[in-house]
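Tutorial, part two.
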Amino acid sequence: MNMQKEQPTVDGYSGLNIDASETLAIQSGNCDIKMTMYETARWLALVRGVEVIDKKARQLGIDLEKEKSWIKPLALQKYVDEETAACIAEVKNLVDGDTECTIR
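Running the prediction step on this input gives:
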């Protein structure tokens, strides 16, 4: 009989077996910020989504400072939702020192 206690998880990411509610202390410049692993992963997914938009705009020669029709909040929200699980895993690996961050 396996008596291991299952870790609490956030928003249906239990398949990861990662406690996404764990609080992280993040240093940004001279400021310390406390967020859960889940919140950190959501921010990571958002930044990545903006990076994807920026890369594609550069490929197409679109100036994002002048052109605002690229702003699609629902599409970006869907991207963040879909990428959150992968970002939780990456944040966990970063916390454990297993990998380098892929944000540029």
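Residues 1-8 have pLDDT under 50 and may be disordered. In part three we will examine how such features are distributed along the chain.
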